[in-house]
Amino acid sequence: MNSIVWILLFTSSTMFHARDNVITEFSDYHFAFGSPFYWVYLMFLFDYAFHMKLCTFSIVTSFSIWLIWCIFTFRKYKHCFWILLFYGSIFAFSPFELFDFPPLFGHFDAHSLWHAANCLIVLSLTPFIIKDANFYLVKSSFQTK
Questions:
Q1: For the chain: N or C, fewer Cβ within 10 A?
Q2: Residues 21 and 63 in one domain
Q3: CB 33 within 8 Å of CB 13
Q4: Integer Cα distance of 70 and 78 in angstroms
Q5: Is the pLDDT at 143 greater than 80, yes or no?
């Protein structure tokens, strides 16, 4: 259903901007007006448990792909250790997001600690990005000579 709504919205907008007439103008304005109401409808249907399962699946799948890449390319890309540290950090801190507990010291609940941990998690990704960019920069400078 979601796809149909957005296809109709963008199709009517494209048709209106390509050929401005009464019918295309009517459909563009009505779909544009109705789309925020559809978002409100979706918010009431939001399923937190499904959202958490989807996020967990996404993280595990992404980690698996990176792990396979690192296993096969470790000799060439020694900096792949940092991406594994990044995902290891996500797994280490994920209980803060997955399990709820009362606030510590009356202030820090599980979700706030998850966000605080994300600041540290990103620090483990930064060296990978820098080293990977430098690797390809050096590689491309040798290829152009």
A1: C
A2: no
A3: no
A4: 9
A5: no
Residue-number span of the structural domain to which 60 is assigned: 48-144
- For the residues 122-144, what does the mean pLDDT come to? 82
Say if residue 16 is in the same domain as residue 57. no
133 and 70 part of one domain? yes
Judge residue 87's burial from the number of C-beta atoms within 10 Å of its C-beta, 0-12 exposed, 13-18 middle, 19 or more buried.
buried
Specify whether 31 is located in the same domain as 52: no
Q: Which residues contact 66 (CB under 8 A, 6 or more apart)?
A: 80, 83, 84, 87
- Please state, as a whole number, how many other Cβ atoms lie within 10 Å of the Cβ of residue 111: 13
Tell me the pTM. Answer: 0.57
| Number of domains forming the structure of the chain | 2
Q: Are 133 and 84 in contact (CB under 8 A)?
A: no
